[in-house]
Amino acid sequence: MKPLFICYPPCSTCAKAVRWLADQGIEVSSRNIVTDRPSRTELSEWYSRSGLPIRKLFNTSGMRYKELNLKERIPLSSDDELLDLLSSDGKLIKRPILVCDRGVLFGFREEEWRNALSDKE
After folding, report:
1. pTM, rounded to two decimals
2. Domain boundaries in the chain?
3. CATH assignment of 4-117?
4. How far apart, in whole angstroms, are the C-alpha atoms of residue 73 and residue 75?
C-alpha cells in the first residue's frame, strides 16, 4: 500500500516534502489536511504509532494555535481533550504527516522520512 501523505498545499514545508518525495520517486496517496481533516480515531491511532508526546502533534506556529492560547492550555488538558481539539481543525495539526508501514511522522525531516520509507529493515 502507498504511504499516506497529509498536507496543506499552501504550506512551504509541505511543498518541500512534495518535491523530496518526487525526487525520490516515491508515490503516495495525498490528502488535504484542511478539506479532508483527520478524524479523532485516525489521530488517536497515529499519535500512538508516532511515539511522540501529544504536544508534538500541534502546529505551534499557526495563528489558530496562538488564538486559542494552546501553549498554556496543552499542559493542563488530557490527551482525550487534545485529540478532540486536533480533530476539530486541520490547521492545528503539525504538517505534513506521513503514514507508512514503519510508523507515523509529523513534520518533514528528510532523514526521518528517508529511514521510514527505505526498503532496508
Report:
1. 0.93
2. 4-117
3. 3.40.30.10
4. 6
